[in-house]
Amino acid sequence: MSRRTMIDEFLCHQELALVRSSPSIPVRGAKIEEELAPKGYAVSVVYVDRSVIEPRLANLQKPVAGVIIAVPPSQAEEAVREAVEANIPRVWLQRGCDSRAAIQLCEQEGIPVVHGECVLMYAEPVKSVHAFHRWLWKTLGLLAK
């Protein structure tokens, strides 16, 4: 399956989960859940910070079709392991948040994984700084085809 096909397959589902480090640490300056909501996505947020009383991936109120993992690379494998245990069928490792171990775990489990890409450059409509980044990546031939 091509990278672009995996991206499109992931984004055609509106019920998603987002794994973040903690409520106080932004994901590279962006609040992914706030940017996806106006685009029609329902995003359930969970945190790897165990001191935060929030749902875990395994006990979300609504089933999700995919999970966006936006944590430091050192926490990515643990987040993927939770996604596997929760039977979430798709994983997006946000650009800069992936690790080789997390990618390998997805591959071993047969889970399609998008990595090295920013979800906000693909979720339509693409606006603000993400539209500029998308144009730049397309111009440079780096945008997934």
Count up the helices. 5
Shape descriptor: globular
Strand order of the largest sheet: 2-1-3-4-5
The fraction of residues in strands falls at 15-25%
CATH architecture: 3-Layer(aba) Sandwich
Structural class: alpha/beta
Please name the CATH topology. Rossmann fold
Number of strands: 5
Per CATH, the superfamily is: NAD(P)-binding Rossmann-like Domain
Summarize model confidence as the mean pLDDT: 91
Uncertain residue ranges: none
Q: Taking Cα atoms only, what radius of gyration do you get, to the nearest Å?
A: 14 Å
Overall helicity: 25-40%
Order of helices and strands: HEHEEHEHEH
Major sheet: size, sense and barrel closure?
5 strands, parallel
Note down, in words, how this protein is organized:
With 145 residues, the chain is of the alpha/beta class. It has a single domain (3-139), classed as Rossmann fold. It contains five helices and five strands. A five-stranded parallel β-sheet has the order 2-1-3-4-5, sandwiched between helices. The N and C termini lie close together (12 Å). The mean pLDDT is 91.
Summarize the structure.
The protein is 34% helix and 18% strand. It is an alpha/beta fold and 145 residues long.
Quickly list its features.
alpha/beta; 34% helix; 145 residues
Strand and helix layout:
Blueprint: H1 3-11, E1 15-20, H2 32-36, E2 42-47, E3 66-70, H3 73-85, E4 91-94, H4 100-109, E5 113-117, H5 128-139
Parallel strand pairs: 1-2, 1-3, 3-4, 4-5
Helix pairs in contact: 3-4
